[in-house]
């Protein structure tokens, strides 16, 4: 990873190497943190952050779900985000928001631990490349009745780490997780769509899938392209029988799946059309979605 100049921490821009937390921070021991992944894209009008307010609303909602007090408003976080991107001077970048329960006392309850908020940016290319070999993981997705999967919290990501490691060790690029009932949930860091007979389908939140902002973007773009999109339960066999499968997420963008459990899939026209439409939107070439772009000013 190429380091940027600054990281925003609790109201101040600090040098990258000086952005430190205490070893006894509560979140380091118990996973009490929430995060967001956001991107700034280069446009003809300068850098712009894609769907920034929606990401920040989800960050605040995630904090509320896990009972983490947030010391900043959405407006303050927006200003801090734009300030950080501008200070680091890159026309495009990945943005990581993190709010975690810091150092104060040890123990599960830790009611006297303050919340620390940080915003970091760095250059990060397409996370999964141009095509993905997918495997079904032996690990099951976190049960939303046990762990609140509607919150983008750090603790439950151990589930994704284990599944990703398993996939890479087996020679694949990514893993798809099934839920406790055996239905498709999502991948380790991206939502999943299948295309069959012209219909676009993605698992619902009740399957343990995070309600992704890129997932929502894809559904809206599909409507503009005349492609019907639905959220419904998917079985593992639905992946094998699909005409197309693709993944989507802030870090990944829209990337086609070339195989699932060694069953080959073709590069489909629906995936390609959606990827082209997404690229036009995030880079400001589609005027209909300019409201999704928050300009970064120096």
TrEMBL record:
Reactions it catalyzes: L-isoleucine + 2-oxoglutarate = (S)-3-methyl-2-oxopentanoate + L-glutamate; L-valine + 2-oxoglutarate = 3-methyl-2-oxobutanoate + L-glutamate; L-leucine + 2-oxoglutarate = 4-methyl-2-oxopentanoate + L-glutamate
One Pfam family cited in the UniProt record for this chain: Aminotran_4
SUPFAM superfamilies, per the entry: D-aminoacid aminotransferase-like PLP-dependent enzymes
Pathway: Amino-acid biosynthesis; L-isoleucine biosynthesis; L-isoleucine from 2-oxobutanoate: step 4/4; Amino-acid biosynthesis; L-valine biosynthesis; L-valine from pyruvate: step 4/4; Amino-acid biosynthesis; L-leucine biosynthesis; L-leucine from 3-methyl-2-oxobutanoate: step 4/4
Class of the enzyme per the UniProt entry, highest EC level: transferase
Cofactor: pyridoxal 5'-phosphate
Keywords carried by this UniProt record: Amino-acid biosynthesis, Aminotransferase, Branched-chain amino acid biosynthesis, Pyridoxal phosphate, Transferase
EC number(s) per entry: 2.6.1.42
Source superkingdom: Bacteria
Family designation: Belongs to the class-IV pyridoxal-phosphate-dependent aminotransferase family.
Function: Acts on leucine, isoleucine and valine.
Name of this chain's protein: Branched-chain-amino-acid aminotransferase
Species for this entry: Nonomuraea monospora
Gene name, Swiss-Prot/TrEMBL: ilvE
């Amino acid at each position: 990873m190429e380091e940027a100049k600054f990281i925003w921490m609790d109201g101040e821009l600090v040098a990258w190497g000086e952005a430190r937390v205490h070893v006894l921070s509560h979140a380091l021991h118990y996973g009490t943190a929430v995060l967001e992944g956001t991107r700034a894209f280069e446009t003809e009008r300068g850098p712009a952050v894609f769907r920034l307010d929606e990401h920040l609303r989800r960050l605040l909602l995630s904090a509320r779900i896990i009972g983490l007090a947030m010391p900043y408003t959405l407006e303050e976080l927006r200003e801090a985000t734009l300030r950080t991107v501008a200070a680091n001077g890159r026309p495009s970048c990945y943005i990581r928001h993190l709010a975690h329960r810091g150092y104060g006392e040890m123990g599960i309850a830790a009611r006297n631990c303050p919340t620390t908020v940080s915003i970091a940016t760095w250059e990060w290319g397409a996370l999964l490349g141009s095509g993905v070999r997918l495997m079904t993981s032996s690990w099951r997705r976190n049960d939303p009745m046990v762990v609140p999967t509607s919150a983008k919290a750090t603790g439950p990501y151990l589930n994704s780490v284990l599944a990703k490691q398993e996939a890479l060790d087996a020679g694949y690029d990514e893993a798809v997780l099934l839920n406790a009932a055996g239905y498709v949930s999502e991948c380790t860091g991206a939502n999943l769509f299948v295309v069959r007979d012209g219909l676009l389908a993605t698992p619902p939140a009740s399957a343990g899938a995070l309600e992704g902002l890129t997932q929502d973007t894809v559904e809206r773009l599909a409507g503009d392209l005349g492609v019907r999109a639905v959220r419904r339960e998917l079985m593992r066999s639905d992946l094998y029988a699909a005409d197309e499968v693709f993944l989507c997420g802030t870090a990944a963008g829209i990337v086609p799946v070339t195989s699932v459990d060694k069953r080959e899939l073709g590069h489909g026209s629906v995936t390609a059309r959606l990827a082209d439409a997404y690229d036009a939107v995030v880079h400001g070439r589609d005027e209909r979605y300019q409201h999704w772009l928050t300009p970064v000013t120096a």
